[in-house]
Request: fold
Amino acid sequence: MAEPKLAVRRKSRSSAERKRSRAPVQPVAASSPVARKRPNSDGEGPPAEAPCSNDSEEDMFGDYDSFYGNDSLIAEVADIEHKYLQDKNIDVKAAGEIVLGNLQSGVHQKEQDNFTASQTVVFLKSDKESACQMCDSDRADGNQELMEFTLDDLPSSQLLCLKKMDELSSASRTSPISKGRDECVNSFSEKMRDPLSFYAGAEHRNRPTDSSSHSKCVLFKSESLKDHLKNAMTGNARAQTLQVSKTKQLKEAVLSEEIFVARKAIEYSSLDIGPFYGLPSKVKDLFRQLRGIETLYGSVINEWQHDCLMLESLQQRKNLIYSLPTSGGKTLVAEIIILQELLCRQKDVLMILPYVAIVQEKVRGLSSFGIELGFLVEEYAGSKGRFPPIKRRVKKSLYIATIEKGHALVNSLIETERICDLGLVVVDELHMLGAGSRGAVLEITLAKILYTSKKTQIIGMSATLNNVGDLQKFLQAEYYTNNFRPVELKEYIKIRDTIYAVDSKTQNGFAFSRLLNFKYSSNLEKADPDHIIALVTEVIPKYSCLIFCPTKKNCENVALMVCKYLKKEFRAHKEKEKQDLIKNLKSIGNGTVCPVLKKIIPFGIAYHHSGLTNDERKTIEEAYSAGVLCLLACTATLAAGVNLPARRVILRAPYVGNDFLKKSQYKQMTGRAGRTGIDSAGESILIVQEKDKHLVQDLVHSPLENCYSNLLLELTKGIQSLLLSLVGLKIAVTHEEVDNFMCCTLLGVQQQLLSKEKSFSEIIKDGLENLIEKGLLKGRISEDHNSKSTLTITPLGKATYKGSIDLAYCNILYRELKKGLEGLVLESSLHLLYLSTPYDMTSTCSPDWMIYLRQFNQLSAAEQKVADIVGVPESFITKMASGQTIRKNVDHAVVNRFYLTFVLYTLLKETNIWSVSEKFNLSRGYVQNLLNSAASFSSCLLHFCEELEEFWVYKALLTELTKQLTYCVKTELIPLMEVAGVLEARAKQLYNAGYKTLAHLAYANPETLVRMIEHLSRRQAKQIISSAKMLLSEKAEALQEEVEDLLKVPTDIPGTH
Reply:
């Protein structure tokens, strides 16, 4: 409902009838959200202002017209007041109310004719009622910020009038009548803070008052309502017009217009700043420009996305889980909700994604939005991220994090009592809750947010959810689902040379579709019994295709087999681009390229699995997206990673490794079929052997797997880690409080599924006792649940949870660091590298003992001393290399770990993954993974040491080592590699082209960048520039925050109070 508006207008009179001519006062601000120009009577713009200070009160208001066209407003007010005051049974307050009632009834009859959005609001009501109802404490509790906002919209005349009345009231507080006026003025100021209160309904006007309020009203008997009203109007008319820049008025008018439109479009208008779901229209334009979304869907938002965004649960800020098929457009909805939180509600946001590569991709994609819309995008992945994050005074932050880094971030916010700054948490791939130790960490993170911040909204999304009821109960969330896919998906299975369509309506679930039409020779039949070449050549090179294989080796074998039997015509398709791709890969490998890739890329084929380096993987993904490559043979990890859709998806076998395919994995793989905006339909074909037919029937028609808690299955990374951090963060410090928290976890929701041997409470009790035995907690676990005995965390326990150290290794890590203090060898980085080598990779390490011995013999005397300190004797390595029997008791975990340390040590010296992988006979992908894990563990180790004073010496050493492990390049390339998505090969290209600093990239011209850097698309250039600008802005903001903190005047200076 529009706010009622009152205006004063002067009835038309000839100049002879006036005692003195005066120019009308032109208001400079409007009370409506939309500012409008108000022409003068001639329609030629605003009239010139003239001073009116010489006018007398009689001259001004002798025959002044009323608010609704009556010539005798003042006289009528006086008559009504006099009439009702004659009756002794009616008090002054009642008279004022009746007068106001008569005035308002007349006002409502004429308001549509007389009032416009830009006319001056004038308050008429007798202030006696206000004075009666207002007390000093009410005035003190007024919202100053809201008052300033309201006063900005008032005409200058009223602003000066209010100021004058306030000054007069301050100067005359000694007399009883002055005190009454003072209360009136303050009441008027309070009403100015809430303009709607001027026009309160009858129920407010007839509200009874107490005797004290009535006694105050008696003060006004000596002053007539006519005089009071006349004095107020005089002050208002005499006020001078404030001088305001017209440019400023125009800018405010434009902003007000957009706000006004948004209020009409969305119900929760107080949070809207534009017409696009409460966001400025600029956001819609950015989605068009940066994502091409309108081109893909025909409009920026499709029907299901609109329905989801308009859900009542979202409007009421309830938690929400929504599920759609892969490629359904889930991410766009999440991004709009994120922007609403950052721009409208002005709160920080955490987005949790499953993999480092996806985090980096999202940072690159959203940095452009941050630059344009004024928020920061901060990366929390691997070793990157600041704990706690910098508290920003102006800009809000979007934290994009992996599961592990998201947990550490939430811990730091809880510890610094800033968790309520987090307005929204978005979790992609919510089904990861059921994925081993990572699922346990995700469950812990969400449980802590739910328990410690009732104002933080949680949004979870996934394409593969089944037991949604448990997840809804855990997250206290609403649920939305839709079967929308922008491109239709057709599912098939192939048995021998026959293709069947998946059809649940038929008896066995499959319907005959067609026979393969491809002539196989006897040799080809032997080489390709599954007819992969026939399936592939129906699609490539015109369209793209993905082949999901059970193992990494199978990926390479399938790619080699396909290109071996393809016709030579396939080489001609985009031949130059494919040669450029091989050159690019060669430069990445410092002159070396994988022989398999070198053979298959000319046919437009490549493999994609964890055996590739980060640079290689990213280069191949970009080439596939650009259409240079038309076929990828890949493992299941691609389905859960970056978005690489295809016209046809072929599943080589219903297995991942040696395990039969899960329904969620099948859905993720087949979901890659169909490229939005390119294909009218996508196809998935699962190759099935006769022996697996019945298993596949169950697979394609069965429901998705349920999502179960992993807190108990992952003991040290699950429930024990949670219990330790609950006490450390003081979320729960008694057995009863811990029990209450645990009931809020997914494990608590699903506790009926637990074994009957122990109750849920007993499992928790055992976990706490185990932590006390390890020396991580102190206290006593009482059998009595009502006991208030509290638990406290030990320094080691605090260091463990703050460093995100696996509880299985925390004690051995402490002992090794303590031992290092006795004789830390600093002549090289070998000793420090050993301490930073991740424990969990030793189980996957199988040393080549001849290589081990060769590397050992190359050590200097100081480096051999490191081997003695950590417990790796040379005699043991010699005997293992020669195949002799070992009698000496040696810890094999330590030996394996030291071998991995050798790999890292060589890698830091040579900074070339290719040469190191060859030297140690390891796959370059394994070496890359080791490097990434070591960088992350080194960062955790740094936080661990920061909590223990005795390890102060490690802090500076580990800070530098973490940086070296993170980038593993020459020092001059590090500033460029800090930019999201810029890896070593790209950093070298940029450096050689003259882009040597972050500022060089931030202020680069995208067209120049494309011209100077080979194999760089315009889209990639813009993303690099946006990411560099965002990083530069983030660093500048951090420095500014530090400056302001330094210059901030302390509030507790001695002697100032």
Remarks:
- Confidence is low (pLDDT under 50) at residues 1-71, 88-157, 171-222, 266-270.
- Residues 152 and 929 are 59 Å apart (CA to CA).
